[in-house]
């Protein structure tokens, strides 16, 4: 069985048989999988009146544990997005009454973003559906293949410089 990347690689082989295509095949497949995942996640979160980035922010706040509050700077650092993009997300979530934005009483230069009770209830409910969707997206892979893919992708990310921050 062939995937959509195989067709493109066959075309390159016919046109430019001199090219080494191994890396192109890997990167093409990672990109295609990411596009499919993103489409599925976008549709899933849209059903809950959320965008992917908004869910990510709510989930980050929930994972932080009680009191479910982080600085805006921490949210920027954890998201790989610009501060302007994060501010926009925060604005949308404040308007939906899912988070609050307050000046830190201990340091007036910092802004604290916190889940509202409504926001916590929503993200708690959606995360179960989110995990079920991710399981469905990977259900065609055997457990050992998932473990192998996890190991290989972790190695790839580390070699690309994407390492966990120091604790």
TrEMBL record:
Ranges of residues in domain HTH marR-type: 23-158
Gene3D superfamilies, sorted: Winged helix-like DNA-binding domain superfamily/Winged helix DNA-binding domain
Family annotation (InterPro entries): HTH_MarR-typ, MarR/SlyA-like, WH-like_DNA-bd_sf, WH_DNA-bd_sf
SUPFAM superfamilies assigned: Winged helix' DNA-binding domain
Domain of life according to the entry: Bacteria
PANTHER family: TRANSCRIPTIONAL REGULATOR, MARR FAMILY (PTHR33164), TRANSCRIPTIONAL REGULATORY PROTEIN (PTHR33164:SF104)
Protein name: MarR family transcriptional regulator
Organism lineage: Bacteria, Bacillati, Actinomycetota, Actinomycetes, Streptosporangiales
């Amino acid at each position: 069985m062939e995937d959509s990347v195989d067709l493109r690689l066959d075309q390159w082989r016919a046109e430019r048989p001199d090219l080494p295509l191994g890396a192109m095949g890997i990167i093409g497949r990672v990109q295609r999988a990411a596009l499919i995942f993103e489409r599925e996640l976008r549709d899933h979160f849209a059903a809950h009146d959320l965008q992917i980035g908004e869910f990510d922010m709510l989930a980050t706040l929930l994972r932080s544990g009680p009191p479910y509050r982080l600085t805006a700077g921490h949210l920027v650092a954890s998201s790989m997005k610009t501060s302007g993009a994060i501010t926009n997300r925060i604005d949308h979530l404040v308007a939906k009454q899912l988070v609050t934005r307050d000046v830190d009483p201990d340091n007036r230069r910092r802004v604290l973003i916190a889940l509202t009770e409504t926001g916590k209830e929503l993200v708690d409910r959606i995360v179960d559906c989110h995990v079920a969707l991710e399981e469905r997206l990977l259900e065609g892979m055997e457990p050992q293949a998932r473990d192998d893919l996890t190991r290989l992708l972790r190695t790839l990310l580390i070699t690309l410089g994407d390492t966990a921050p120091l604790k």
